Amino acid sequence: MKLMNCPLNGWRNIGEFVYGGEVRPAPGADADTETWADWVFMVDNQAGVVREWWFHAPTSYWFIAERDTANDTLIRTYPAAEIFTERVEFASGEKSS
Amino acid sequence: MAFGLLKFGLRRTYRARGILPPRPALKSSYDVVIIGAGGHGLAAAHHLAKDHGITEVAVLDKGYLAGGNTARNTAIVRSNYLTPEGVRFYDEAMQLWRGLSHELGLNLMLSNRGHLTLAHSDAALRTMRWRAEVNKHQGVDSELIDPGEIRKLCPQLDLSDEARWPILGALYHPPGATARHDAVAWGYAHEASRRGVEIHEHTEVTGFRREGSRVTAVETDRGTIHCGRVLQAVAGNSTRVGDMVGLRMPIRTVPLQACVSVPIMPVIDPIIVSGSLHTYIWQTARGELVMGGSADPYPGYTTRSTLDFKEGLMAHAMELFPFLGEVRLNRQWAGMTDMTPDFSPIMGKTPLDNYYIDAGWGTWGFKATPVCGKRMAETVANDRAPEIIHAFDMGRFARFDQVGERGAASVGH
Amino acid sequence: MSQRLPEPWGLLIDRSRTIRFTFEGARIDACAGDTVSSALLARGDWLLGRSLKYHRPRGPFTLTGDDANTLIQLGDTHNVPAEQVPAQSGLTVTGQHYSGSLRRDRARLTERFARFLPVGFYYHAFYRPRGIWDYWERFIRRAAGLGRVNTAAGHGYYDKNYAFCDVAVVGGGVAGLAAALAAAEDGADTVVIERESLCGGGLNYHRFDAEGESGAKVRNELMRALEAQPRVRIWTDTTCTGRFGDNLLALIHGDRLTKLRAGRVVIATGAIGQPAVFHGNDLPAIALGSGVQRLMRLYGVRPGQRAVCVTANADGYGVALDLADAGVDVASVVDLRRTPDPDPRVDAVHARGIAVHTGCAIRHATERNQRVAGLRIVDRERIDDAAAPGVDFDCDLVTVDVGATPAVSLIAHAGGDVSYSESNHGLAIRSLPPGMHVAGSVCGPCTLTSAQREGQAAGRAAARAEAAALPDPTLRDGPTNDGWPIFPHSKGKEFVDFDEDLMIKDLVNATKEGFSSIELVKRFSTVGMGPSQGRTAAVNAVRLVADATGEALEGARASTNRPPAFPEKYGHLAGRGFDPVRYTAMQRCHEVADARMMVAGAWLRPAWYGGDRQEAINREVKAVREAVAVIDVSTLGGIEVRGEDAAEFLNRMYTFAYKKQPVNRSRYLLMTDDTGSIVDDGVAARLGEDYYYVTATTGGVENVYRRMLWWNAQWRLDVDIINVTAAYAGINIAGPYSRRALERLDSDIDFSAAAFPYMEVRTGHVAGIPVRAMRVGFVGELGYELHCPASYGEALWEQLMAAGEPDGIRPFGVEAQRVLRLEKGHIIVGQDTDNLTHPTEAAMGWAIARRKPFFVGRPGIEAREQHTLTRQLVGFQLPADTATLPEESHLVVDGEAILGRVTSIAWSQTLGRPIGMAFVSPAQAEAGRHFTIKAQRGNRIEAEVVDTPFYDPDNERQNL
Is the dihedral of CA C885, C889, C894, C895 positive or negative? Predict the structure, then answer.
């Protein structure tokens, strides 16, 4: 795979992009240690079509790509907003700051 | 000495030693099933047979013998790690390496070249000194040396101040060596099968049968095998196999590329590594330059080669050795590495009763082959991980308890 | 004696211009247009190289550079096939890999010991006693290596460019030219890539028919039509070394690597002639028939006096006719087939009275003066009978036409599947990777018309982005391959792999050792691992291994084909070697002040100014403590965070609390990663309710910025985040006289103590330059950090230097700053912390706002705080008379146990003793306790834990 289709900038050389990990929404603020440890350290690491974060470095733009890791081909790319649609709130009841 | 060669000349016909065993039929059950006939799996089989008298062992591989990362690595062995537990572990490996050709009856071409990790910044010097101090404190020969001393060991390096990334010093590890990686697997295969271990190439694991937390059988494309214990040692395929048996892993499968040049006359004696320049290089006895860099910038289950890799690598290599422009690249290849978050392996028991794991070897697996074999055999035989591998326990991540090794995987990732 | 042929032989040479060069010290006269290889062959000199193991004499086999028999050295360039070096005046050429001279190589002695050196012999010996391999390896290393490298040479000039096209055609032979024409006629922007200096391939030298005329005719038609097309680029002398993802082709031409991105690729790379394997088959002047035809047609060289043409198809008869036309005495055509297929060339050979033997096997070739001198043939059915009668020929040339293997490298690189086809007696493409088309003899043996037709179809399909057609390997119509041109001899020396000196028994014995697949045989025997990567060895290796192991030949694969398709120079891959350096806006000022620069990531920063390091540091520290000094802090990261959720965002990204931070105040920032480890720190200046200016470390800002954007892509808070590091220059002016220096400048900011308290922020102008001014205390003195737009940086620096002159202002560098901040006990992230330091270990629990619902790293911190603390960062001091200071990273020990390490240490002029920071065991982490540092040469030094700050513990001076 030598090209990536940035949703903002179109097809660019792969060297302009930075891989950012699997797309796995973070646990809630009050999730337990085990759940957080799983999110921080464990990965699905599948051989097949996976959903990943990618960053176009020259324009500082994060987006999501679906890629087949078994044969290094790009399936599709789209803005993060397609998956992350809602503002994330943390439990109210935070005291002072 | 070379007397071993006389017999070849003095006999009319070639009498083969039979280094690799013929292919056996697959039985329906074994005391131990080892998944993965790479260096680690075969070494474990050898030690199970030799140290523990356990010979009802089948080593399975979906491809040809040791055709995974054992065939593809760049063969550097060293113990100049950062953490005390890492140093102790890899040093045991180095001690085993020194006697390994003898033990296996095969010349593994262990070539003691000396290993230099170059520092191009103050921060790197600090890290090199840290490694040197931990090494020395544990009896491992390493020292931080200055450019003058580097020049004596490798005068071909560009040590001038005009270099873009001037070399400020280096971690010198005299015991650093290289070995003939394929032969290591052959040696273990030979010795293990001599004692009754069976090696089954082209036998792919397709699933497992479990009863609660016990694995009762391993399903393959050649039949189902009932098993007493199972050892998983499949490197880049750790997640694939782990998924089948129900284990969750912190492993990312990332391609690691390497390349080799057309042979040239000897120019570089030691093994040279630059972390900040993501480059390492050494020269084989045949005269080829073996080179590698960081793992690929994104994960994948492929061993395809890229143009970006060799462009970046050569640009950096020529920072260190400007004269390399005329050298010709002959071949590039890749392996699939199992990277962990803390650049340390995953060894020992799993939440399953009779299933053991040897994984997370990233770019640091080949050098650990002998100690892995010995200690995983011990773990499987005794159903207890020896103290020397406790730091690599699978459960450490759930506790947010990482090994502090990032800084000793020679090339930055 | 010159072996030059008259015109019209010698398409590429100009007999009127003589070129002189030397080879192995001898003067060689060549014609313009000759290669080094053709020039030597024109003298009748076929000895160009020495083999790897036995140092046997070797000469050109393919005559294209596809074999590695002709690797020569010219000056600093080595391992170059002589066929690819144009003859040039003054060239000094030598052979490689010999002891003494090329002609009298002493190392050929090794050949006598061949029977002691079977395949993989080095695995069976050289390892007892322990460590002995190091000794043997020294000898082996000296004998090894093919080329000499000049280690004093510089980087050399190589460059790169990018190119784009709709259709790239690799290979400018008949199939490729036809494909390019069809693509161009369909409107595609087309590039033809041809390795040689002229297009046409076999059209230029092959004899397709009895008269030998059709090649040139077809070539001229195709070239004329192509040259009339507007959107065709024809790149000769250009080698494609690899095809990478998305049809990116790596092309080498001269000093340049061109990265061509093609919509579709047509592979028309042809096929590589293969050797027959018999005793002595590696001798000089045993060569491919096609190679010999090239030599005659293109370079006008008569290849010998008396020839035998070994063949398994009609092409060998064409070669015989060409040789006869050139005045060579053709002793016989030796056909491996018992019943040759009818062909006009066969008839023509008979008609000319040239002898023909059919149903033959080759018993051996003989040698005289390091060249072939004779050939013995026997009846093919009696090859196993050593007593079978043979026919002997005297000859000084043997041509070989027993088959060709498709040049499939680029297809294999791209993931296409290639395996043996019994109907072809050779490797065949079984599947094509997406976006690639094929045509011509790369698909299997092919006639001229078929190649042209296939080329047309492929070019059109590529232009239209249609599915690629893969021709059926069982339906090829070209010259047949022989399925087993392998003739074992009791004395061996029937070479399967010329590069590695491997004979038939080497491969067979490898299988006997248990290496039962081609991959394992390759690794044990090294077949195919030499410079030619099996181009003339792989097919016979596949045949022999299948036979020896009893595995099916149909579908058998060769070992994996990998890039590059041809050896490529490191220089081409490296290119110009550009590696940018970042300077701040004040670089010139630093140079003028005699700064000694240090590397800080991609930046250069002044470490100290002028002369001896320690003296300079002392001077600079003194200036900060007692007067006034300035440091360039432009490299430190700057990020603007603006929006309704700005404070909430900072609360989530950092450990501390920001919602109630007053406007115009600064607050410390500490960032941890997802595991709870410290990764960065800085200062947040609140410029407005919804407006923060955040700083970060030089090395950390890029990652901080990236993480901020990543988290907010998920949180979707109402905030804009902009990395303004490069937009602003920064200067920290520090010292008791810093205020009065500033007050000498024209400004709308009131710098007085009452108006501008510690930790506050003001925006305004200084000397007409827009600035953000922050009172921060990193070095522990009264001081202001001024950020201005980068284009004003130099001006602001000069204004401040002028303003401070009455107080003796001087610049200070990173080294002095390290000492100053150390005296205040401020940590440096990445020096006093490592990859795993969490805040509690670094005594930074105070920077964690525990009542926030969440911040990045919190789960990790909380989990790790449950573990027993194993280390603690503390300040320490050493006695003033300590002779040699320990260094950073020296360990803190207790007998065999390692408790921690020194992270920072410096001589403090201000305090008159060495101070530092170190990780120690929690039990030692109390002021007054002692610990042991293991310093140089293992010397133990006692250190005393001290509370920080060391200097001005009540922080009065920064509050002035």
Answer: negative
DSSP 3-state assignment of B55? coil
Residue in chain B nearest A69 by alpha carbon: B300
Q: How far is CA C618 from the centre of its chain?
A: 46
Nearest-angstrom CA–CA distance, C692 and C676: 24
A86 Cα to chain B: minimum distance (Å): 28
CA distances from B247 to A43, B351, B384, B395 (A): 12, 8, 19, 11
What is the domain-level CATH number for residue A70?
3.30.2270.10
Kindly determine whether residue A80 and residue C714, on different chains, have CB atoms separated by under 8 Å: yes
DSSP symbol at C376: E
CATH number at residue C135: 3.10.20.440
Closest CA in chain A for residue C662: A97
Q: Which residues of C touch A30 (CB under 8 A)?
A: 853
**Domain extent for A74:** 3-27+50-82
> Among B31-45, C114-128, C514-528, C740-754, whose mean pLDDT is lowest?
C114-128
pLDDT tens per residue across span B395-405? 999 999 999 99
Tokens of C451: 């190649």
Residue C119, both tokens: 């395949």
Residues of chain C positioned with their CB less than 8 A from the CB of A52: none
B6 pLDDT more than 80: no
Question: Using CA atoms, how far apart are residues B93 and C666, in angstroms rounded to an integer?
Answer: 53
* 8 A C-beta contact, residue B276 and residue B120: yes
How confident is residue C835, by pLDDT bands cut at 50, 70 and 90? very high
Q: Is A14 on the interface with B (CB under 8 A)?
A: yes
Give the range of the structural domain holding residue C248, as residue numbers without chain letter. Answer: 159-272+405-475
Q: Return the closest-CA partner of residue C157 out of C227, C254, C79.
A: C254
Domain boundary among C402, C420, C442: C402
Which residues in B323-382 belong to E strands, given as ranges?
328-339, 346-349, 355-359
Measured distance between the N- and C-terminal CA atoms of chain A, rounded to whole angstroms? 47
Last residue of a domain, one of C352, C386, C402: C402
Task: For residue A97, name the pLDDT band (cuts at 50, 70, 90).
Answer: very low
- pLDDT averaged over chain C? 95
Phi-psi region of C281 (alpha: psi -120 to 50; beta: other; left: phi over 0): alpha
Q: Do B137 and C149 touch (CB under 8 A)?
A: no
Instruction: Classify residue C432: in a domain, yes or no.
Output: yes
Selected for mutation to probe chain B from C66, C69, C123 (highest B CB count within 10 Å) is: C123
Percent of chain C beyond pLDDT 70? 100
ipTM of the complex as predicted: 0.96
Upper half-sphere CA count for residue C945 (Cβ side, 13 Å): 19
**Structural domains of chain B, with CATH:** 25-111+176-251+341-413 (3.50.50.60), 112-175+253-339 (3.30.9.10)
Whether residue C473 contacts residue C421, with contact meaning beta carbons closer than 8 Å, is answered with yes
Nearest to C133 by CA among B358, B112, B67: B112
| d(C-alpha C74, C-alpha C85), whole Å | 9
Residue B319, pLDDT > 90, answer yes
Asked whether residue B17 carries a pLDDT value surpassing 90, the answer given is no
**Residues C625 and C742 occupy one common structural domain:** yes
The amino acid occupying position C689 is E
Are C120 and C513 in contact by the 8 Å Cβ rule? The answer is yes
- Domain shared by C201 and C220, yes or no: yes
B6 touching A, CB under 8 A? Answer: no
For residues C626-650, give the mean pLDDT. Answer: 97
Distance between CA atoms of C793 and C770, rounded to whole angstroms?
Answer: 10
CA distance B214 to B328: 53
Residues C136 and C219 in one domain: no
pTM above 0.90, yes or no: yes
Alpha helix (H) residue ranges in B295-343: 307-320
